[in-house]
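User: Predict the complex with nicotinamide-adenine-dinucleotide.
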Amino acid sequence: MKKILLLPGDGIGPEVIAQAKKVLEHLRAEHGLNIELEEALIGGAAYDDCKDPLPQTTLALAKQSDAVLLGAVGGPKYESIERELRPEKGLLRIRAELDLFANLRPAILYPSLAEASSLKPELVADLDIMIVRELTGGIYFGEPRGIRTSSDGIKQGFNTLVYDENEISRIAHVAFRIAQKRSGKLCSVDKANVLEVSELWRDVVEAVHTEYKNVSLSHMYVDNAAMQLVREPNQFDVVLTGNLFGDILSDAAAMLTGSIGMLPSASLDSQDKGMYEPIHGSAPDIAGKNLANPLATILSIAMMLRFSLNEIELAKKVEDAVKRTIEKGLRTADIAAGEQAIGTNEMGDAVIKAL
Ligand code: NAD
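Assistant: Here is the predicted structure with nicotinamide-adenine-dinucleotide placed in the model:
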């Protein structure tokens, strides 16, 4: 029996997690998935409850689980509270506490949604990129950091970009293993022409490459990678990069596929225990209106089945059910492009019907 913790969070989080829960319950009842589901608070919802965006009880449950499924956190209501207590801090903390250093973000284009892409359909046809982003290091965590005032009274903000060779090596191994299972092509993205950190990054990735001779490795500067991603995205298969560059490039890649509401993600530790979440945020503009697209969250279940629960066949079933639902013409408002749209609940039901 595998334990799965559901963390709905804020905004549209509870709405999309409700659909995911229905799908998981269906898989348990009809497809033999042996799971136990629990639910806990995170983000703004947890702050409202106990003034902590990651309560000890939630963290303890997450540590005991085999996998965690998160909706989204944050919202305008929490923007003025102290930085340490903001919902997003809860998310950064749980990633760090569970040592989820490998963030996997696929950008896949469903042929029937090609028109929703911001690029010409012929440029994004069959797009299937996997971005592997380092998640617990780099400039988002580096110390020292802060805002200080110099002796002449000028305010200065500062952060530290730091990676050690072990952090680079373990994320590189993850990326090479994934590349082996796909087309055997890996592109490592850095800024080695300017940053010493990137120089080390390149050396370590090259060293790890000697253990994966059947993968072809290339390197690209991040500014060029951003350009190539919108010029000719199909040249990429697996992309390996650090926390900051990965944050930006994976959002750009997401847009190539048409909707942020379609893309799942996985964050894994060294034992493939993971937290799975849609890449979108809490979308306060549409929260509580049955408008959110739940497919990114449902596709996150497929990633969970594949990477943490070793249920490859069920993962394919879920992905296939989503594909067939889209092919039938069913659309939430974000991907409707003028067509008739259905709501969050109805989309969840449609996927279960397709399953
Ligand atoms: P967002 O992803 O919440 O929304 C961006 C736009 O995409 C909005 O117009 C929204 O309506 C739309 N959108 C997002 N998800 C959708 C879905 N499933 N279906 C249909 N439309 C969808 O990003 P934002 O507006 O920059 O941030 C809102 C809040 O979310 C902020 O508080 C931010 O900090 C937080 N956030 C959280 C996460 C997370 O929990 N992982 C990630 C990003 C942002």
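The mean pLDDT is 95.
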